[in-house]
Amino acid sequence: MRNASLWLAALLAALLPAFGADVSGKWTAAIDTQIGVQNYTYDFKVDGGKLSGVAKSQFGESKIAEGSVNGDEISFVENLDFQGQALRIVYKGKISGDEIKFNRQVGDVASEDFVAKRAK
Q1: Could you tell me if 112 and 106 are in contact, meaning their C-beta atoms sit under 8 angstroms apart?
Q2: How far apart (Å, rounded) are the C-alpha atoms in residues 44 and 53?
Q3: Under 8 Å between Cβ of 105 and 113
Q4: Is the pLDDT of residue 73 over 80?
Q5: Regarding beta strands 85-96 and 110-118, do their DSSP bridges make them parallel or antiparallel, or are they unpaired?
Q6: Are 105 and 111 contacting, i.e. CB atoms less than 8 angstroms apart?
Q7: Which residues contact 43 (CB under 8 A, 6 or more apart)?
Q8: Which of 36, 62, 82, 95 is least surrounded by CB atoms within 10 angstroms?
């Protein structure tokens, strides 16, 4: 019986990363950009490997699109309306506990690295 319990525990531990880290909830970041520091709040929801939610900054609020969480990797798109112009921002990150190290590609304009932290 003990061997069966150990085997089941090992199997579950191996499968958990495939579903992704639990990033559900609020995260904050201060992103140093070409136009100054942008303060963001992300409200993530995870269902299986699918990520949804909202990204908020001083420029407005955008629904998260094309989101996924796979193991410790996270990615999504923010379709921002910036001064009447559609701006596609692609995020890719690595989750480590209560931090996510992100790179975001802002259209064809800039690439920015930053860290988001889980809000307390």
Answers
A1: yes
A2: 5
A3: no
A4: yes
A5: unpaired
A6: yes
A7: 25, 26, 27, 53, 54, 56
A8: 36
The CA distances from residue 81 to 2, 62, 84, 98, in Å, are: 57, 8, 6, 29
Rounded CA gap, 120 and 117, in Å? 9
- Per-residue pLDDT for 2 more than 70? no
The strand pairing partners of 69, in sequence order, are 74
Q: Copy the structure tokens of residue 89.
A: 């921002």
**Residue 51 and residue 44 in contact, taking contact as beta carbons nearer than 8 Å:** yes
Q: For the domain with range 18-118, which CATH number is right: 1.10.1530.10, 3.40.190.10, 2.40.128.20, 3.30.70.2390? A: 2.40.128.20
Per-residue pLDDT band for 120 (boundaries 50, 70, 90) equals confident
Question: Domain coordinates of the chain in residue numbers?
Answer: 18-118
**One-letter identity of residue 1:** M
